[in-house]
Amino acid sequence: MRRIIWILLGLLCLPAGGFAGQLEPCRDVPVPAQNPQTAAKIELGKKLFFDRRLSGDGTTSCATCHNPEQGYSDGLEISLNYPTTRNWRNSPTLINVAFQKYLFHDGRAATLEEQALFPMMSAFEMNQNLDFLEEEIRTVPEYVAEFTEVFGDGDVTRERIAMAIAAFERTLISRDAPLDRFLTGDASALSPEALKGYEIFMGKGKCAACHFGVNLADDRFHVLNVRENPEHLQDPRIAATRRFVAKVYHFEEYRTLAEDPGRYLITKDRQDWKAFKTPTLREIAGTAPYMHNGIYATLAEVIEFFNAGGGQGNTVLQPLQLTPMEKDQLRVFLEEGLTGAPLTLTYPKVP
Length: 351
Description:
With 351 residues, this protein is an all-alpha fold. The protein folds into three domains: 2-27 and 175-225 and 275-337, Cytochrome Bc1 Complex, Chain D, domain 2 (Orthogonal Bundle); 39-169, Cytochrome Bc1 Complex, Chain D, domain 2, CATH 1.10.760.10; 230-272, no CATH class. It contains 14 helices and two strands. It has helices spanning 2-10, 39-49, 62-65, 112-121, 130-138, 141-151, 158-169, 178-183, 192-202, 230-233, 236-248, 264-267, 299-307, 324-337, and strands spanning 221-222, 276-277. It has a two-stranded antiparallel sheet with strand order 1-2. Helix 2 (39-49) crosses helix 7, helix 4 (112-121) crosses helix 7 and helix 13 packs across helix 14 (324-337). The protein is globular. It starts with a helix and ends in a 14-residue tail after the last helix.
């Protein structure tokens, strides 16, 4: 009976993530009125996404840290970096990013258009001067022609660059996962083990309390006290990055900061100290490692973290007391049930 209720609710295709505990198969991608999707704009955004001109030294593109072959992430604990620097957080997948209310682990961007420019400007990521980037792109006749087609004239601006990239990123949607087919009435879509894992996900595992809706995420931030990576804490380059970011966000004690404050840097609300955004679980099997700092290499480790009640001292989670078999069944559901059809991509010819 409960399964029938979930199916009926899922078919409602509610916006804004749905209600807690409700899983949805809907794929209506939200598109802002000020940046409508067109085929030409998407193609332009795809070219820019793969264009290494967007970095200061011409060696990296958006696709460097969001590799299509690695679930639009990069498979590393923390993202790649500009030479002589080091990043400090894991590269999140861009799959289903169109459904996210907040971008980045700390939620500092509210739109894909805003998000696209952050890595380009970042001193420890792409380290590009946006004024210079505009001039670089303007020197490429093919780009000027495409900007003219898409925007009505050939003026290349950072805002238009971001709009085109965002349009491409809104096409990166997980489709036809076994869970979607199950929610729309195909009782055989999940294997027996995955079905048991689904029931744990919805029940004893309490996963659906935060992972629900179209994107299997609640668009909220939680303090789970994920442990810091000791190796990262000892790396002076990461320390410099951590202090630099804290300085940019006007954290007075930035020079002595020895951990990741999470969302606190954005809100300055003490309740957000070490709070991080709930990630989507779509295509989770292909986007390891996990957590904001990539501390867990496997889903089994993540499940064990939650089963133990999260990190020491957190007040959000309680031990789940899952048996070894239940933990394995949950893992099977996450790996099999949430993996959709392969995202096809024709790589562009960058001018």
